[in-house]
Amino acid sequence: MLQPYDPDRIPLIFVHGLISTPRMWRNVINELETDPVLRRKYQCGVFAYPTGNPPLYSAMRLREELAKFHKQHPSARDAVLVGHSMGGILSRIQVTTVRREHWNAIGEDKAAKLFAKVTENSVFDRSTRFEANPRIARTIFICSPHRGSEMAAGGIGAIGMRLISLPGDLASSVTSSVGDSIALITGDPQRLPNSVSGLSPANPTYQVLNPRPLESVHHSIIGDRGKGDTPNSSDGVVEYWSSSLKSAESERIVPGPHGSCELPETITELRRILHLHLKQN
To answer: Is it true that domain 10-280 has CATH number 3.40.50.1820?
Structure first.
């Protein structure tokens, strides 16, 4: 949390994306806090994580940190999450329920092989089975690849995968849990899952997540590089078909690239949503 805890203010948690840090939110938070109502009603926080790790693992870490926060502050107001890019995937997972049987979406035989050696409460188990967090009241996605990004599946993604090295304890945990079934996740039996493979449209996680409902009110802010060619638009990294959600309460197209968080149009939409949340809560 960036400010002293106040039980009367709503936790507003920002989650950064790939190859980024919480510092990316500095100007966004400063702009939002020029609004005296938002400054008085919300308390800002950020989630920091190594962006080379697989999204499911990073989402588990976020889930556990939020649980620690609410255990420490049981009277806290229900939170609002704002996620950019891969941070939106982490945020989406917080408001989605996935059980073991839902992994049959990749094929019952494949799912059985994938989970054959997984022990209860292991890192892999906690990363792939989870309940939606009832303490999250609203989620805002900015340029989020809900169905993956073709860039992760191309040449740039291949280079990125070779450059990423997982921490030893995480690599050991994945190997012991999944063993020779790792190719079901990465497509390569010699390569451990990481953030780049996790953003590929071919990653089986999307087959599991996409049919699952989001159990909070949610909104989308989507960049189109100013070309105005939606629904065939792209922010340069994520295409509209991946970032749009039919279940979103609102969708705003902003004329900018993938890093559209600080655009005036984005700030205006964030302010609108946060004021709407105050009216409804």
So the answer is: yes
Q: Note the pTM of the prediction, 2 decimals.
A: 0.89
Domain boundaries, the chain: 10-280
Residues 6+ apart with CB under 8 A from 242: 145, 146, 147, 148, 149, 201
Phi and psi angles of residue 12, each rounded to the nearest 5 degrees, phi first? -120, 105
* 181/254 Cα distance (integer angstroms): 41
Half-sphere exposure of 214 toward its Cβ, with a 13 Å CA cutoff?
Answer: 26
Measured between alpha carbons, how far is 110 from 97 in angstroms, rounded to an integer?
20
Q: Tens of pLDDT along 78-132?
A: 999 999 999 999 999 999 999 999 999 999 998 998 888 888 998 889 999 999 9
